[in-house]
Amino acid sequence: MFQVGLDLTEPAVECLIRLCGWSAILLVFGIFYFVFREALPMLGGKLNLVEFFTSPEWRPAAEPEPHYGILALLLGSLAVTGLSMLMAVPLGLGAAVYISEFSRGRVRETLKVLIELLAAIPSVVWGFIGYMVLGRIIIRLTGTPLGVNLLNGSIILALMSVPIIVSVGEDALKAVPDSYREAALALGASRWEIVYRVLFPAAKNGLLAAVLLGVGRAIGETMAVLMATGNSLRLPDGLLHPVSTLTARIAAELGEVVQGEPHYRVLFVIGLVLFVVTFMVNLTADLVVKGIRNERAA
Amino acid sequence: MNEPPEAQSADEQYVLRWPAAEGAAGQTAYPSLSAALQGLSRHETACLRGDRSAPLPPWEITCRPLHGALPGRAAASPARPRYVYHVNARAGHPLSGLGGGEGTEESPWWGLATAVEQLTRLDQVGQIQLGAGQSVRLAHREVFTATSVERWKKLKENIARLVFLAAALVLIVPMAAILTYLLVQAWPALSFSFLVENPRNYMTAGGIWAPLVGTFCLVWISLLIAAPVGVLAGVYLNEYARDNWFTRIINLAVVNLAGVPSIVHALFGVGAFVMFAGMGRSLLAASCTLAVMTLPVIITSTREALAGVPIAFREACWNLGASRWQTIRTIVLPNSISGILTGVILQVSRAAGETAPILFTGAVFFSTLPEHGLGAFFPYGPGDRCMALSMHLFTLSTQVRGVTPALQYGTAVVLIGLVLAVNSLSIGLRVYLRSRKKW
Predict the structure, then answer these.
(1) pLDDT value, residue B99
(2) In angstroms, what separates the C-alpha of B229 from chain A's closest C-alpha?
(3) What is the CATH number of the domain that holds A191?
(4) Nearest chain A alpha carbon to B170
(5) Does B341 touch chain A (CB under 8 A)?
């Protein structure tokens, strides 16, 4: 069949594909724009930013003068994230090393699939496990009256962020050329010496990226933290005391506020803070990974 | 044994046995196969002259290793001593000056004669100064056995292996235990009617049909939005985009979009879909939010799947005069459909489990549903608010009083089961298709 005239399918399709390709950029800007738009009326002078970041007083409903201080929430997020990373980083990197260097064949595939399934469990289920199961275990072991607390949230978060640390860390170890391993082996190094003296230095950027992505995941986690930390407004002052985080506070209060009033807008400001923080963490992780790739290529 | 002198330097010898028919049976060893064959030809002439009435037994040339394989021979061979000798030189010992040199455990003497000779030499030059009660101990060990350094290295390696294995197991074993516990707790509630009944009595009784339908609607609508956009974006990144700063920014955006916290997605959904686009809190707004959230998963996996198609496939197609889009449609996409599907399925499981993004954009704790008729089975339109399984679990466990634990655990188990089933499907598909890959 002969085609007469211009065939417009090709340019039209190409245009559509291009548009979809740009969608990621549009969406990142869109997220920033729409969160910023809702937060803007508060940012324009109404919100005392110094108080916002340094005061532990979060009393958005107080009359006549509400207090919007997120220090307790910031420290809560930091404490939960830090504590969970203390558990998740050694475990995650250890598991990554085991999968990548010490296991092979069927064992390796099984472990990888299991870790993948660990990653698939929804965050609300993790929260449920923390709330219903881990909380009771903590009460029984320590005798504390409240099972949902900093420790509980951290353990749950650690388990949640481990899969990403394992998979990115394993990729980083796999990216080290085999010739490095062979050279070390030829010099008489044992497997542990290869890991410790050769692979860790060679893959340190990738491993750092794995940790950063884990941190990003932990900071941004909402439902599990909301259910497992107890969501109580106080400065984090003990493993067995409940805390609250930035994410959990938004989730707990957004449903109760009236759209357009200051409290509602302040929640969007918190969202903006979260967006910027996770953006920075992810950007750093990405640059770190790109760094190695360029180094390799050079 | 009749052994030619040159055979001693070789690693093996060739032994020719001749049969008794020639008279005296016997054997001779030769250093090489060709030498043995020459010997054979000399015997042949002798043989042909003999009595030929009896059938001739065959000649035989056997290759016999000189070292190791035959018992007792390796030790006898002077070229490869079986034992090495070393002095235990510790700090403060009269011989400690030797450390790191000859005669230590890492660098032993080969053979007793050498050891004695060297020790004598050291004594003559005054290296060995024995005080009262001090002794020089000459230790020996077999060649190729581990020294204390090597044993220590091996021990460290085994400890490291155990520690790393423990790290992996600490992740998996408690998880398996908890999942089992959940299943046991949920067992009384799990039944077919649990799945198909709507919640009753303020959610303290009944089943989970309405939330289940809500989750299905959310997942499918978000899939309808995210899959085409995500796949085309993956096509753009792998097939059209050049390696320049703009592409790098797109990649960065994809990575960051994947890292945006789910609650920020919820805020975005409220700001963009609920308020700005005027959808209100509805199934549609919630699905759009979920679609945005799961888009990076699809983009990344599509790009990886496309990158797996060899460039030669495309070149062959271009050479036939096909355009870029024709190539993609007829060659690239069909060859990478498995990888793309894997990503799409992963998106489904992700979307089914998420709670935070739908919390304020369309999901509700409870919606009153008609008792009977079609409305009880398909309760939601795109503009309605809906219940969802993940949200239902959150509500049951934290917001409502008087819910029996079995109901809570049952909901959790159904949600986990749903997500894990979808994930296993994706993993199974990946394994199956990897095994049938044609290139």
Answers:
(1) 45
(2) 5
(3) 1.10.3720.10
(4) A91
(5) no
Chain B residues with beta carbon closer than 8 angstroms to that of A271: 263-264, 267
Q: Note whether A102 contacts B356, CB cutoff 8 Å.
A: no
Q: Which chain A residues touch B306 with a CB distance below 8 Å?
A: none
Q: What residue ranges do the domains of chain B occupy?
A: 5-75, 83-145, 187-435
Taking residues B130-158, what's their average pLDDT? 78
Question: Per residue in B405-433, pLDDT tens?
Answer: 888 899 999 999 999 998 888 888 878 87
Asked if CATH classification 3.40.50.150 holds for the domain at B187-435, the reply, yes or no, is: no
Among candidates B395, B304, B295, B308, which has minimal Cα distance to B346? B295
| Å between B160 CA and nearest CA of chain A | 6
B-chain residues within 8 Å CB-CB of A215?
A: none
ipTM of the complex: 0.89
Cβ–Cβ gap B171/A219 under 8 Å? no
Does residue B230 surpass a pLDDT of 90?
A: yes
Amino acid letter, B326: Q
Per-residue tokens: A50: 């110094």
Does pTM top 0.90 for this prediction?
A: no
User: Which residues of chain A lie closer than 8 angstroms to B280, CB-CB?
Assistant: none
Domain that holds residue A182: 73-247
* A241 in any annotated domain: yes
Helix (H, G, I), strand (E, B) or coil at B109: strand
Residue-wise pLDDT tens digits, A236-289: 888 888 888 999 989 988 888 888 888 888 899 999 999 999 999 988 888 887
Which stretches of chain A score pLDDT less than 50? 1
What pLDDT was estimated at residue A127? 92
Task: pLDDT band for B343, please (50, 70, 90 cuts).
Answer: confident
Query: Closest Cα to residue B144, out of B82, B64, B229?
Result: B82
Are residues B164 and A223, on separate chains, in Cβ contact within 8 Å?
Answer: no
- Provide the domain count of chain A: 1
pLDDT at A152: 92
- Confirm if B349 and B423 have CB atoms less than 8 A apart: yes
Q: Is residue A82 part of a domain?
A: yes
* Angle separating helix axes A150-175 and A105-120, nearest 10 degrees: 140
- Tell me which chain B residues have a C-beta less than 8 angstroms from the C-beta of A107: none
Q: Give the pairing of strands B138-142 and B83-87.
A: antiparallel
Q: DSSP character for B240?
A: I
| Residue B73: predicted pLDDT | 43
* CB B290, CB B335: distance < 8 Å: no
Question: What's the rounded Cα separation, in Å, for the pair B177 and A99?
Answer: 21
Could you say which residues from 162 to 201 on chain B have a Cβ atom under 8 Å away from some Cβ of chain A?
A: 163-168, 170-172, 175, 178, 181-182
**B340 in contact with chain A, both atoms CB, cutoff 8 A:** no
A22/B164 Cβ within 8 A: no
| Mean pLDDT of chain B, nearest integer | 79
Q: Give B96 or B149, the one with higher predicted confidence.
A: B149
Q: Which amino acid is at A266?
A: V
In a domain, residue A167? The reply is yes
Closest to B314 (Cα-Cα) out of B329, B330, B327, B333: B327
Q: Are A150 and A243 in contact (CB under 8 A)?
A: yes
